[in-house]
Amino acid sequence: MTRWVLASGDFTTLGGMDRANHALASYLARRGNAVRLVAHRIDPALAGAPGIEPRLVPRPFGAHLAGAPLLARAAAREARALGRADHALMNGGNGAIGTPTWIHYLHAAYEPELASVRAGVSSLASRGYYLARERKAIGAAPIVICNSERTARDVETFYDVPRSRLRVVYYGCDPRVFGSVTPAERGAARTSLELGEGRFVAVFVGALGDRRKGFDVLFDAWRTLSRDADWDVDLLAVGAGAEATAWTARAKDAGIDRSVRLLGFRADVQSVLAAADVLVHPARYEAYGLGVHEALCRGIPAIVTAAAGVTERYPKPLGSLIIPSPPQPVALVSALRAWRAQAAEWQLRAEQAAGALRARTWDDMAGEIAAAVDAA
After folding, report:
1. What 3-state class would DSSP assign to 339?
2. pTM of the full predicted structure?
3. Quick check: helix, strand or coil at residue 202?
4. Can you give the residue range of the structural domain that contains 122?
5. Is residue 10 a contact partner of residue 38, using CB atoms and an 8 Å limit?
6. Which of 25, 175, 244, 255 is the most buried (most CB within 10 A)?
7. CATH number at residue 30
């Protein structure tokens, strides 16, 4: 039996990198390995699964920066106790002891744009720590697993890592959850969300704690579009964060609150997507973009910036849904109008592209990662 140590903040199904970590842990355990998870949070079902050994680390006062050093030290202790035939894989800065590392988000590639002085002070303090840990981990890693070619190029650029030490492994999906939307499912989703008849629905999925996901760009574009009396599209925003309440107030002040609704955090993103006609993701930085991937798997066209790694997997018929980076409201307005003018055609193209994405499962991703770590 091979023992593995995996270290990350969370092993859950609630976010992009967390979902990928969860998938890898589940795969390894189901194949008879003993898998020690070092984390702040672990999905209860995963924690209780055969082969999983949870090692929970506190996050004092709920602060990420306070918990990060504790997690890194616990991960190092667990990794050093492994035998020569065992394996360890850390996320980012947790792996600063010469273990393979998995990069879901490269801190050096993006400096957050924040909306408040308080958030800026906190971000400055944490950014310095994460950059130092990231540099050390990547410098010491025998291999660096990246979730896209975009991420691999960033690692090369910012940390001068030779290509021979980089491995690109794309995310997978769960086709049982993110399959084609049936008419019955769409009707139930729209009823649940209390959506009006005869209206199209655009969906945004992303954290609202800073401006990385570009909701501010989408908001400005929506104000422009809403001046057109013929604009028959409503916007649903899924996500939580420090600015969520402020965006609700801004929508009311701008007079667009009837067509813009913030849903907060949702664990059933697949159901919200079932009600959607288009996903809009004008991110300033996105190492991959699992939300976009999952929308396409559901047959939902997705407008996204070229900054997102997931665009590497866009087939040619969907190419014009990719807008330039950095995102600008004018470009987004044009893209949304072009989509609306041929909404049925875009849906058909997205559904035709969905099969290839759904064919790659989370187990496919996990198997490639396990092979890469084993070879290293």
Report:
1. helix
2. 0.94
3. strand
4. 3-172+361-375
5. no
6. 25
7. 3.40.50.2000
